[in-house]
Amino acid sequence: MREISKGANVSLTALSEDAGSVVVSLGWSSASGAGDADVSVLLVGEDGKVRSENDFYFYNNPAAADGSVQLLGKTPTDSGDEDRIGVDLTAVPEEVARIVVAASQYGGTRFGDLDGLRMTVADRSGEPLVGFSIDDASVETAFIFGELYRRGEEWKFRAVGQGYETGLAGLATDFGIAVEESEEPEEPEPAGEPPEPGVAAEPQAARTTTAGTPGPAGSPTAPAAPADAGTAGPAGSPATPQAAEPQAATAGTAGPAVSPAAPQAAEGAGTAGGPAAPVGRPPAPGAAPGAVVPAQARGPRTTRKKVTLPKAPGKSLAENESWRPARLFPVPSLKSDKEREVRATSVLLSVMAQVPEFGRRLTAAFGAPAGRMQTFTEVSLPHGDTPRRPDGVIRVERAGKLWTALVETKTNGNPLRPEQVQQYMDIAARRGYESVITLSNDVALEGTAMVDVKVDGRRKHKVGLWHLSWAEVAHQAQLLIRHEGVGNAAHAWLLQELLAYLQHEQSGCHGFQNMGPAWVPVRNGIEDETLCLGDPRATEVVESWERLIRQVCLRLGGELGQKALPVQRVRRGSDPRSRRAAAAERLCLDGRLSAELRVEGTSSVITVTADLRTAKIRTSVDVPAPEGSYPLVTVRRLVRLLAEAPADLHVESLVEGENGPRGTLERLRPEPGDLVPRSGAALTGFRLTLIKGMGNSRGNTESGFIRSVDEGVDRFRQGVVAHLGPLEARAGRRG
Fold it and tell me: What is d(CA 417, CA 410) in angstroms, rounded to the nearest whole number?
């Protein structure tokens, strides 16, 4: 991968022959675990302006109808979080000159609070082509990381690194998206139905002006590329991106920094109180009430309403509970692992081909273009004296070109066979196929290969090796039919049938369900204090724990409709093996496995700890106390918020420099004042903890460890986190 500096540019075509479709990644980490940002993409013309609202993509409008841009969402990495964007450069309209990739923050945070800001571009096979790191972020609340732009018949990447203190409002103004705020913000309406997917919701307290409308003198202009040496544009006007090539023509050679016009907020935008919130996201407390909305969003809504499943199922016509509904994909007849693999592959691939939103969702991250998809099973392909039969083949056609992936499936916890995957990689390379996709119950980890294969570096054609977990497949189906919606009711029904199949106990597609052979020896070694430091089995247990936590996050995200990610409190560049070795050492010393989870859009971090010495699972969250509030008023407010929480919830007061009072909610309800520190020390917050017994077996049976973790997180989320609200709402203030 080639590293370039701010302002430099490089030709993607020169770096890879397979750069017609790329995956752009924005990465960062947060020491506190609460830092986050929203990614946005703008398609701009030669005038540096968006053509319409359809050229602005963000979390509430994640995909282009033509497949040119798709926000693939956040993915946990060993150095934090990574937001990925699929860009099909062959599908970008001719009138689009640049693709600007940016990110903005909310909730009063700044990019200087994040570590390891970085943008990378990979080709269709997943091979990283170019990387750009930002190390000078401070008070900015929005950042242009980089841009892809045309030069004749090729596409180039430019490292921009331009920050805005005025948030998304200031950035959007430069590209023809303006916002005016009313003088007195209106009261927000009660929460109702979410906005239609793909439609930018217009906030109550914001009204937009027409993109491109002349503003007051001194209003910012669109960012422009620096001109070639010796090329002069009109006096006083910056050259457009098409007009000239940046001086930094050689990748890795620092050229003139790309400097958009000074980011100034549009009239009323970015005023005191913090950056405007992204489109569709409620403004953070204390933030300006206006939100950035494309100017054309005021016009008639033309997007068709997408179909999601009703929250409450319709009344059943069955005479009694023993009647089972007819299913499109029957499961109980499956007798062997081979039958499960064949059935699961056929069911999944057929639904992918019939539900374009679902098929695109699963393949976009692998570099597949947006186009007509066909899927096949049990295809015979020549390989030496004996033909090979991959479990499935996916083909996508766009503009007369074919993208092909071979699929190897495993169910019921069966491991992938490296020699089998190697054969498919060799076949794909010889036949010019783009990818091999493995699918199993296991969950992939960053820095750890699912299977070891050898890649012949002498071959010009590169083949991408990708992995999907059945848990990821179910997660994407849940997001579409329960939260984001699909094109019609038939598609929603197909996804519902697929989900019912995957969740059936006989399907074998249940995700990660086995802590591995090292689990029992390590657990026993901790109980009798015979586990030695450096035991490799402890590292195996740590890796299994990470897989389990990532699967818990997938399940939570599917239920909530928001990304749930494990928190990584490490800096970019840390070695995953060293980090896991350190976790294994802590496991040997104190007998605990610990992880932190955070749901996107929230600041709360849920901590999950498995104590193998006491056989207990602890799930907890810290709730900050309002500054300057009366302690007694605050604890009473907390107890009222937890009126529906379990009686065995442990509540601990967090006090500076000492151990605070604590007790179960059952005991504290009649006497909430027991949580007030008697020493008079400052009350900084509360720690809420649920404790449950830990399963001993390594699997997902009734007595299994995996099931006990799932149940502990579910009970804590439904019984505690779901009832929490801001303590500031009614807490008294001093003075």
Answer: 9
Quick check: helix, strand or coil at residue 15?
Answer: helix
CA angle, residues 94, 95, 98, in degrees to nearest 5: 95
**Sheet of 56-57: strands edge to edge?**
9-11, 154-164, 142-151, 98-104, 38-44, 56-57
> Any alpha helices (H) in 67-220, and if so which ranges?
167-173
Q: Which residue, 74, 17, 91, 85, is CA-closest to 369?
A: 91
Helix (H) or strand (E) holding 465: strand 464-469
In the three-class reduction of DSSP (H, G, I as helix; E, B as strand; rest coil), residue 658 is classed as strand
Quick check: 201 pLDDT over 70?
no
Residue for token pair 């495993």 = 410
Among residues 408, 424, 406, 425, which one has the least CA distance to residue 416? 408
Cβ proximity of 349 and 409 under 8 Å: no
- Rounded Cα gap, residues 175 and 355, in angstroms: 34
**Higher-confidence residue: 321 or 421?**
421
* Average pLDDT of the residues in 87-108: 88
Reference 147, options 127, 161, 128; nearest CA is 161
How far is the C-alpha of 671 from the C-alpha of 653, rounded, in Å? 14
Contact 471, 551 (CB under 8 A): yes
Q: How many angstroms separate the CA atoms of 403 and 269, rounded? A: 45
- Check residue 261 and give its pLDDT: 37
What is the tens place of the pLDDT at every residue in 140-196? 889 999 999 999 888 999 999 998 888 888 888 888 876 444 344 444 444 434 443
CA distance 711 to 555: 12
Residue 719 pLDDT greater than 70, yes or no: yes
Tell me the H-state helices in 288-438: 337-354, 356-363, 418-431
The residues, ordered by sequence, that sit 6+ positions from 694 with a Cβ below 8 Å of its Cβ are 610, 611, 612, 615, 616, 617, 705, 708
pLDDT digits (tens, 9 = 90+) for 436-495: 999 999 988 876 778 888 876 666 678 889 999 999 999 999 999 988 888 889 999 999
Task: Determine the pLDDT at residue 315.
Answer: 82
Query: What is the rounded CA–CA span in Å between residue 220 and residue 141?
Result: 17
**Count of CB atoms situated within 10 Å of the CB of 184:** 7
pLDDT at 730: 42
Between CA 162 and CA 116 the distance in angstroms is 16
Q: How many CB atoms lie within 10 A of CB 312?
A: 6
Tell me the C-alpha distance between 598 and 603, whole Å. Answer: 7
What is the DSSP code (8-state) at residue 721?
G
Asked if residue 721 lies in contact with residue 606, where contact means CB atoms within 8 angstroms, the answer is: yes
pTM here is: 0.74
Provide mean pLDDT across the span 3-12.
92
Nearest to 260 by CA among 152, 172, 139: 172
Q: Which two tokens stand for residue 474?
A: 């179910």
Q: b/e map of 348-359 (b: 16 or more CB within 10 Å)?
A: bbbbbbebbbbb
Tokens representing 651 are 């509540």
Evaluate if residue 81 carries a pLDDT over 60.
Answer: yes
Which pLDDT tens digit goes with each residue over 254-278? Answer: 333 333 333 333 333 333 333 333 4
Confidence of residue 571 (pLDDT cuts 50, 70, 90): low
Q: Hey, what are 643's tokens?
A: 């009126």
Per the listing, tokens 């890796």 go with 543
Q: How far apart are CA 249 and CA 253, in angstroms?
A: 8
